[in-house]
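User: Teach me something about this protein's shape.
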Amino acid sequence: MPSPAKKPTQQTTRVLQSKIRKLKRDLRKQTEEAEEWQSKLVYIQAEFENLKKRSDREKEEFTRYANRQLFEKLLPVLDDLDSAISSMDECDSESAQGIGMIRNNLLELLKSEGLEEMECLGEVIDPYKHEVVHTVSDDSAEDNTVAEVVQKGYVYSHRVIRPSKVIAVKNTEE
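Assistant: First, the predicted structure itself:
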């Protein structure tokens, strides 16, 4: 026959209650520590994401800057091709067509990379986009507008990389 269950003594009860309190304290401490580590992890993940975004922006900016430098070096080549085409006489019309095709191919390649040619004939003079090299009087045109483009200007990533050199209309007398 099984022995009857012993009734816990008061001392045993106190020891068990003390152990329970200690376990609860340890559990609370471990929970706080786990929450602290969790918050550190969330912070580190956010920092990593910010670093990744910043790195991507810097790469994009570097590429844009490198492209801009290349475009600035190629613009005189476009100017030379324009000069060659305009200086050829009618006897060399086939050569002029060939050079024109080369110029157009080069310009299309640069356009596909983001370079844009500025159209400014008839526009109001903007010092950020136009460099006035000469003025003319023309009663049929508005004052302070572009009468003629001497050298084409170009824009890359919404920034002027070379302003257009223009002849402006100046009708007012000073």
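Now, about its shape. The first strand starts at residue 115 and ends at 117. The chain has a mean pLDDT of 89. If you'd like, I can walk through any region in more detail.
User: That's plenty for now, thanks!
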